[in-house]
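User: I'm curious whether this sequence folds into something compact or stays loose and floppy. Could you predict its structure so I can see for myself?
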Amino acid sequence: MNRKKSSSTHRPIPAADRSNAAIRRKPGRPARISRELIIAKSLAILATAPVEDFMIKTVAHELGTASMAIYNYFGSREDLLVAVADEVCLMFKAPKPRSTWQESLRAWLVALKKHADRYPFMPSIIGINSHTSVGWLKITAPVMVLMHDQLGLRNKRLALASSLFVTTAATMIHALQFSASYRKPDVFPKLEEIGLNEQESEVFRHAPLLKIKEKELFDALFEQLIRGIDIFL
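Assistant: Here's the prediction. I'll summarize afterward.
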C-alpha cells in the first residue's frame, strides 16, 4: 500500500478543523479522515493522557476508523508525534520586543512558559527521534534575531549563545512542570528509606524546599540564563 508522506511544514490547523465533533459516516464504511483531523484528535488525547500512553490505535478509535487509515498519513507513532510537536510549536505567539534585550528575553521566556503550561506534553515530544521541529525553530527565531541585532553576536558565538539559551530554557521549563511534585511534604519522612545518612537527612529537612514558589524558581532560572549570555558579550 502506498503511504502518503507527511510534511512537517504547514500552517496551524484552523479552529474549525480542530473541532471534536463526531465524524459522521455511513454504516459499514470507514470514517473520512484527514491529516488535520488526525493531528487535532491527537492533541485532544495528549491533553488528558501521558505521552507514554499515546498510541495510533487510540487515535483511530477516537476517530471511528482503523489504525491502517492513520498509517496512510503517518508512517509511525513517532511520525505522528513529530507532526503534533510541529503543530503545537507553530501555535506559539512571540511577544513584542521590550525596551531592553533582557526584558525582551524575559518576555519570550514567560510566553514560552505559558505555552508549555497550556500544552504540557510539548517539551516531551519536541526533538522526538532526533527531529528538530520546524515549529521549534520558529519559536526560537526571535531569540537568535535579538542576539544578532542587539547584542552583535555573529557566527559561532551567535549559534552557541542562542542554543544555550533556548535549550536550557526548554529543559528547565520542563523541569518546572514537575518541580511541585518533588517538594511534597510526604516525600521527606521517607528519606531514610533511600539510604541517606543522618547528616544528609537533616540537611534536607532544614532546607526550605517546601516553601519555594514556582515564580522564585522561574526568576532564578532567568537570572542564570542571562548570566550565561554575558560570557559571550
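Summary: The chain has two domains: 15-88, 92-230. The domain at 92-230 is CATH 1.10.357 (Tetracycline Repressor; domain 2).
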